[in-house]
Amino acid sequence: MKYRISKLIYTAGAAALLLGMGSCKKDYTDPSSVPSDQAFTTSQTLTAVATGLQRTYTAGRASSLFNRITLDGLLTNQYTVINQGNIAEYQLGQGGGTVDGTNTILGGLWTSSNKIIYDADQVIAGAAGLGDRGYASGLVAYATIMKALALGDLAMYWEKVPAGIGERVTFVDRADAYTRAIAAINAAQAGIAATPITAGFLANIPSGIDIPNTLNALKARYSLFLGNYSEALAAANAVDLTKRSVFSFNTVNLNPVFETSTSTNNVVSAAANFGLPAGLQPDPNDRRIRFYQTAAYASRIAGFDSAAASARPIYLPGEITLIKAEAYARMTPPDLANALIELNKVITKQPSADPFGVGAGLPPVVLTTQQAILDEIYRQRSIELALSGLRLEDMRRFNRPLTERKRNFLPYPFLERDNNPNTPADPAF
Amino acid sequence: MSLRLLSKLFRFRQHLMLLVLLGCSLAGLGQVRITGKVTDEGGTGRPGVSVMIRNSGTGTATDATGNYSLSTDLRPGRYTLVFSAVNSKSVESNVEVGSASSYTVNATMRQDALSLDEVVVTGVSAGTTRRSLGNYVATVNAADLTRGATGNVLAALQGKTAGAQIVQNSGDPAGGMSVRLRGVSSILSSSEPLYIVDGVIMNNSTNRVTNTQNSYDGNNFVGNIGQNRMVDINPDDIERIEVLNGAAAAAIYGSRANAGVIQIFTKRGKTGAPQVTFSTSVMSSSLREKIGVNQAPVKFGGSPDVFTQDLITNIGTAQNPALATNTTAVTRYDYQDYIFRTATGTDNTVAVSGGTDKTKYYLSGSYFYNQGIIRNTDFRRFNFRANIDQTLNNVVSFNLGLNYINSNANEKPDGNSFFSPMNSVTILGNFHDIFARDANGNLKAVGERGRVNPVSIIEDFKQGQETNRVLANMGLKVKPFKGLSIDYTLGIDNYTQNGRTFIPPFTYNVSTAFFGGAAGLDPTLNGYASTASNQFFQINNELNANYQFNITPSLGSTTQVGYSVQYERNRYSMLQGRGLSPFIETVNGASTVLPSIDDRSELSVSGVFVQQNFRFRNKLFLTGAVRVDGSSVFGENQRNQTYVKASGSYVLSEESFFREALPWWNTFKIRAAYGESGNLTGIGAYERFNTYTSAPYLNRLALTGRSRLANEDVKPERQAELELGADLSFFKDRLGLTFNWYDKRVNDLLISRQMAPTTGFSSLLDNFGSLENKGVELVLTGAPVRTKDITWQVTAIYNRNRNKVLEVGRALTLFSTNPGAPVALLEGYPVGVFYGTYFATDANGNQIKNASGFPQIERGTQVDPTTVTPGRDGTTGLPTGTTLRKVIGDPNPDWTGSLVNELRYRKLNLRVQLDAVQGVDVWNADWRTRQGVGNGEVAEQEHRGVLPRGYINSVYAIEEWRIDDGSFVKLREVSLSYNFGKVKFLSDLTLSLSGRNLISWDKYKGYDPEVNAAGQSTLLRGIDFGAVPIPRTFRFGINARF
After folding, report:
1. For residue range B830-868, what is the model confidence (pLDDT) as tens digits?
2. Do A54 and B697 lie within an 8 Å CB cutoff?
3. Are strands B77-84 and B91-97 parallel, antiparallel or unpaired?
4. Identity of the residue in A51, A81, A272 whose CB atom sits nearest the CB atom of B701
5. So what's the ipTM on this one?
6. Which residues, 6+ apart, have CB-to-CB distance to B875 below 8 Å?
7. Which residues of A touch B313 (CB under 8 A)?
8. Which of A20, A295, B392, B417 is the most exposed place for a label (fewest CB within 10 A)?
């Protein structure tokens, strides 16, 4: 009896002990991520979030960069769809009413643009708290480039843009996005002017981006789109045309256009003559044809998407020169002489004279009327800036006929429309 | 002090007295031997019948011939022997123990259509008979699990239990299985039931240790592909499986049982001489049916070397698209002959069991090997088990179970990529000589598109995984005095799953997206290798106390209290690289190291419950329970969730008036159950936190905000289910009918609800909306013939479930998926419907065609996701406006069912099982691809001019074209066996020949509509995209005992 009872106590004790093994702890934290409220408190995490913006903008098929290049290429006939199994590309290639709010390419561009603006604002606000002003000015400027590109992408493809970030945001004219982008650039430039960017900051972000020149280049681009020609000219003149500013890629993070389109021969192919109509097609001796197109791939895509680690310029020196030409040509009163000088700089540029090797290498042109100069600027932009995502905006600005494009503005993604009652009506075309 | 309390105290003292008496009376015992034979109605000995002396804890089981022998210490007096067996009514016999030392008690068992006296454990702590249950619990026995020519326990369960839709998602030898009990019960998390093996919660997750390429990321993009870990269980070790469909009884298991419970009991030793069971079998599997391929003598366009495919390739410009109309003569190939083979396999188990009164054991070892019907794939499993039961004394008993498993699979890439065996031949015009080699002896590219040559995949790709797993359980049962029992169970499930993937560098142009080096064979990109490991550890503790006493002789009470704690930890790590050096298969050979993955998670769940049951005589039963649960994955304010349940049953046929009035109506039981449960592991361990995740980018650190915002105070889903049912049997239990009706509603549904991207996020993880499953289940059993020589047993199961998403708002949630399936969540529609573009039709329902004879996509104005106004051009009558969308298909079947006929003539046994799944749609991505690239039969019609050139191009983008009829009736299992009985030194010998998935009657245009390329995904179902079809299997087996 005694033996039995003691055994019972032992077993009960053993059971209690075992039970204790599975403790009741309920608070576990994720060791592999940073809580949102702590991500904007140190210079290291702020820099990493800013680098994350570049990642969102450029990495992979879901990136803004891929979506923007593909979207613009398809809507402006620079790309031909070669497999209609890729439904989003196919819809854009068909254009018109076939493009709707379910399209993942336009949905992706919309979503990542807003995400970049949301996080860039937090980085810029977080940088204000840093003691090292030279580090902070770099951080603000770097994040501002991503924010400006995101705002610009919204304005280039949608007629109305969100007025900000938040619940049930209202929509404003797309010009407002360019204005906001320029305001952000001005603020970033003021910061750099007060305290130049430290080398320590630049070492912490991916190499390739020339921050001061990119800020001016984007300011010139968006000022031109807004019709502020003197600002555009001033900003363009501030850009050092010998410098390169690129989104880098490597064998781990591949150039997304190469990975998805060039290499697969299965999504899109580069159209002959840059998709330009008769009368605007390139001179057969134009050396940019060979730069942008190849026979090495059935997709014929070359240029900045010719290899896995091909860097993609954020702006081209040729764009800056053509911004100057266009600003001269459009200002009141027009300065056609200077416009022609700048235009001929691009037409006569030898590939070897361009930091990226983009050069027409053609004899200069003689044009006398404003319209003739503008037409030539459009042709030169179409070729020099092929597949850079700017063509749709150019087509509208140069009043090209609607038949040359598959859509004038994009419809709003269903994701926005279904969840925000302030989403405007879709444009008819 | 109240009177009631006083009486309670008094009763407690009585028990104490009893305990003391029990201890003191040990002196009067004497050794007694009871023997006998148990037969069925035909006089044949019944093996495996449990024989228990009531209230003594002593028992044994009959041997192969139906004889039993029981030796124990008994005081003189009257004892009741209880004989019970599966599918039979229990029989009781009294024995008066006097001075003699040996007694004989024989019994005859009668088949019971409803198994009302079968003991059920699931959902109750101490075993209870089915009679008293207020909810439905199905039991499947060993004999039914091992006859179906499969080594996978879940496959063996197909069609055998009401309310379950069990789908084999892949025909791979270790292919994943999905089990849905009463429909999908969650959207965000797994809808798979809780698996319990001998008290251990068994992990059944699908871990991606192979197919590790980044193109597979994202659960709602690709799904949950590959093996799930129930594949580790050896069906031969299983004694029986209990399936609990509803929430009503889940209170006992806590809130992990939202999607039902499948409890597996393995075989245990029985008192008697050691018994050795040996079973061996050989299997042969093959493709059930090839699909037709294009036999046209020509292709469109030029040389096959230049074009991978021909039907929809645009040779025009963006402004003026055009298709090639010239043709080139080609040789056509059927690549199916190459990738498929007739596969062989073997399944062997040796088990030894036996024991004394106090110590019982069951030991087994098994070896299973099966080849896949895809060349160079196989699955091998070693499985060892030891189950020991030890009675220490009248108060304490102890049991231990240990199961070690080693499983190893040689795989090929999963269907979702274009470099899987199935897709590599689907995505190719069948005019390429894939075996042709260049001057250096290297394989050649298959056209211009950078596709992978199928020969590379079959011969050179190496992919496989290995799992080492230990399942251990320990149980302690203490019965301090009559009526009280305390059970403690400790279970551990621990496994490591290691995978390896190797794509060798290609010698020809393969796209970088498929891990080739593109046209220039870039050595930094060409080839891919990875190694991944998933380590899982889980421990569960359950402590239950059960007190049973009679308030009055006719009114009994059972009170149960329980406490449980579970903890689980998972570590996943993966190394990968590309740009491989020749000859090296490991990541060490990679010139480009890709980002590695290091995922760690921990979670714990705990709960307490009280359950009270009253029974009045043997006919009225009432149960109520309350459970409080908490889980670490949910917000701190949501740690204590309370769930209630109540159930009742009334066995009307126990009333004397009923028996007298309707003597042919043996059983009439009605029951009702209501239960609540939660989903305490409904989100991942850290999903409620808003964080920035880290990843290297261009050699710098990048932190990226999630696109999903989470409500940090999110709470578990809460399910409430009402189940009503009846069990009826007639004509001496020869006809039985079970009927269940249920209404299951999941509220506070966990959804990643869509958000306007202008908020900075695309979705919000929160409790939002609800989900409803309503349905009926019918089980009809009959024994039309039951004579000594011939028996004929019929079982028919019918299940109907209607699933609906409610209160999620009018917004459309459309998922972009890897196979292009437009899977949607829409208010008022079932989970996972296909929502997309469709054919324009006229008032008569005929397709509208243009002047070229091409069908048109519907256009007009989309008013909201489910309301459209089609537009028509005034002059041509063709559709105009924007592209319209609607629900075009539903992967949830209207009904499922099965019909089993079992015929016995003397010792010859034939069992035939038909399974039906009706009213279901499949997203047949592969069929469309075959037409687009030119190897399908519609393509052949276009080549031959039966269809106008451009027909396929015109319909290719219309999503409705990919919706296929997935309804089928399958000859699931046929088994013919002959029992020789005692043969020479063998005490029993059975030979069997069986077949599985022999015939499918369907209108499906692919191989087999029973498929899901998205694997075990809750949301993505009914998708055919490169999944290996389920083979037809034949098996010959020998089962011997000695």
Report:
1. 999 999 999 999 999 999 999 999 999 999 999 888 999
2. yes
3. antiparallel
4. A51
5. 0.92
6. none
7. 82-83
8. A295
